[in-house]
Amino acid sequence: MLLFEEATHTYRFDGLVVPSVTQILAPLNDLSFVDPQVLEYKRQLGTAVHKATELYDLGDLDEDSLAPVIRPYLDAWIRFRREKPFEILGMEQKVYHPLHRYAGTYDRMIAMDGRRGPLDIKTGETLPGYGPQTAAYKAASEAETGERLTGRWTIQLRDDGTYRLHTKADNDDWPVFLSCLNLYRFRNKHAA
């Protein structure tokens, strides 16, 4: 059974700690040059935007309670929902890959344009690890459900109320993720 400890961002499967997709892909998304206070602000902003979109999709959002800084990101999400219809098949679902022993949480599982797959919501700039990230969610979901998924996307919500949808179709994304997983395990095995 997969469990998640929010405070420490730790996944456990049958009691054993397993690495998260985010931890595994950390070398691809090096943000060490960014001021830690800015990073923390961006993390909190991303968390708040994710929660707002989740509550909106569930029909439970009190839009009057939104902080003004969140509003343009939610407007971008609403605009995307209106302009590019899709069906939400799953939301904020934790997944585990039994063969490769990693876990993560996808933002949405959707059906769009005849394809099904994970959609990850972003509030910052596009980073190289986003393709491998969605590939990892796709592979874990397929391993858990036995259903083949045919699409992967990220949606970049912007502070001006616009969005950019990015289709992730690079065949190297899954091998890159596996390489990062091997590197993660090697580093942990040989950590001093």
Based on CA inertia axes, which overall geometry fits? globular
Number of strands: 8
**Low-pLDDT residue spans:** none
Main sheet specs: 5 strands, mixed
Main β-sheet, spatial strand arrangement: 4-5-6-7-8
| H/E element order | EEEHHHEEEHEEH
- Strand proportion, as a percent range, falls in 25-35%
Report how far the terminal alpha carbons are from each other: 31 Å
Assign the CATH class. Alpha Beta
Rg is 17 Å
Describe this protein's structure.
Helix content is 38%, strand content 27%. The chain has 192 residues and is α+β, with helices and mostly antiparallel strands. The protein has a single domain, classed as Trna Endonuclease, Chain: A, domain 1 (3-Layer(aba) Sandwich), CATH 3.40.1350.10. Strand 4 and strand 5 (102-112) form a beta hairpin. Helix 4 crosses helix 5 (173-189). The radius of gyration is 17 Å and the shape is globular. The mean pLDDT is 95.
Annotate the secondary structure layout.
Elements: E1 2-5, E2 10-13, E3 16-18, H1 21-24, H2 36-58, H3 71-83, E4 87-97, E5 102-112, E6 115-122, H4 130-145, E7 153-157, E8 163-167, H5 173-189
Parallel strand pairs: 6-7
Antiparallel strand pairs: 1-2, 2-3, 4-5, 5-6, 7-8
Helix pairs in contact: 2-3, 4-5
Brief overview, please?
The protein has 192 residues and is an alpha+beta fold. 38% of the residues lie in helices and 27% in strands. The protein has helices at 21-24, 36-58, 71-83, 130-145, 173-189; strands at 2-5, 10-13, 16-18, 87-97, 102-112, 115-122, 153-157, 163-167.
